[in-house]
Design goal:
Helices cover 14% and strands 42% of the residues. It is mostly beta strands.
Length: 144
Amino acid sequence: TMSNALVPEFAVSDWRRSRSFYREILGFECVYERPEEGFCYLRLGEAELMIDQIGEGRSFDSGHLPDAYPFGRGLNVQIRVHSVGRMLDALARAGYPLFLPVEEKWYRADCMELGNRQFIVADPDGYLLRFFEDLGERPVAAPG
């Protein structure tokens, strides 16, 4: 059974190409698929994601379907992983470019800072995926 309360579904131009990218490079598992609809339910750790072929099965249109690369403009999906290292190695081996190189970034949350080691990669349709490993938290530095 699927457990996440929020699971994005990406409308994709070629579901087999997308499934290959998510599985073979990023390491997602295909929980189940409906090839007749061009659909695959993917999971990586606690992260869940669906891909759905445009024009197969049920598609939402009325101007809501992407029609030009990059798909998903204005959106990036943050995905927590145990370590970004293996994924970075796999992307490098595949010659797959990063959209944003790996960085350590600290984000203020009230009086604490939360640390992420993160990078962004665009999937074959241009959806932006921000993978991060948790670096923990620290107090906000005093000004001055």
